[in-house]
Amino acid sequence: MAEDEAVRSSTAARLLRVRSRTTINNWIKDGLLRSIPTPGGQNRVDRSSIDELDTILAIKDRAERDAALEALRRRNRGETG
Q: Residue 39: how many CA atoms within 13 Å on its side-chain side?
């Protein structure tokens, strides 16, 4: 992922309509968002992963949304199966 394709966690929070950067950082740790660390120790969030998570969060059916979230976690962590 190129630096210009990544945004600050505060921008990611705004785009995903959440109030806290903490939520974004938790989603990064949980594997729901992909990020790259900066030399200063912060994260830049991959813009395409924001769009992908936003699409999944809009799924109305809870079982379908949960399955999509789990698949996203596995994909972002490089897991198979």
A: 0
